[in-house]
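Example 4.3 (complexes with small molecules)
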Amino acid sequence: MYLLAIETSCDETAVAVASYDDQGHFAIVAETISSQVDLHALYGGVVPELAAREHLSNLPILVEQVLLQAKIDFDKLSCLAATRGPGLKGCLLIGLDFVKGIALARDLPWIGVNHIEGHALAPFIDNPNLSYPYLCLVVSGGHTEIHKVIGLGKYELIARTTDDAAGEAFDKSAHLLGFPYPGGAQLAKLADTATSSSFNLPKVMRHDQAFSFSGLKTAISLLIAKNKERISADPAIKAGLAFAIQAAIVEALVFKVKVAIEQTGIKKVAVTGGVAANRKLRAELAAISGIEFFCPSAQHCTDNAAMIAYVAAKRIITSERANFTDTAIARWPIETLGVSK
Ligand code: KG4
Ligand code: ZN
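Answer. The structure with KG4 bound is encoded below.
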């Protein structure tokens, strides 16, 4: 059986076709993505109304493209899926209503998928050896959380950010260093050209269970302001600062993961989300002794439709079906999810 999945929660329009069966087999047949990053870079951040308009014009083209790549047509589809939340409401509605339209016209069942559940289960797409339970660090531009992943729909929140996400901490620091939005990857690239740094940033988040990047962000902005002239005069100073910033953010993330391992006794750790592309973060998580480490391929770390297809395939076989009255949910913590069976 085939399903078509759509992701439009933020600034990437993504579509995937997957094959699945009720024995648990799952494979991505075709997938495509259109990033809006260049459009939003003009404004220094995602402009929700522009993002929604882009999804609206991209979706029909991407759906046609992915069906062509998969060499199937609408008649071959058994199920549809769209991200229902969390995310930008206007953006979510474009994907949801697109899927509702096809479902109505073709009399097909559909599933409204939680985007973070997609990220949390994405490690299964590229790692068939992964099994429950495991700890998942979801780190993106919008989310920073650690969950105990017990099974489909069964998540225990261990830590979540009370303010910025790790990706925002990277992006805002990158902005202060003069990089265009989003900037996190560019800051990381510069940081990796240095091997040490004379700059010191505080070790944060030692006492609370939750993540919080506000203190670190203040320390970073003060450090950059204090060294403004040296940064413009000497590229090695900028690289040293980038090194210290990356090290501080990564250290805080890895510290919390180690606490979660100690608290739960779980020795399998996965990382997903755009910040999982960070080389230092991956290396430091992989180096934690006595654990198995899992990370999706780069294209399944960032926002993508394959992860939405994966969740939909697992949920449709539990007899879950969406209703036409189901609408977008801007905030939707995954620990409130369940399964229909
Ligand atoms: O998951 P994602 O593609 O989109 C959402 O936020 O939903 O994550 C994007 C975030 C941005 O903040 C971006 O700067 C950050 O991931 N990012 C990185 C790296 N690559 C992307 N942050 C640090 N190091 C990287 N190599
Ligand atoms: Zn995401």
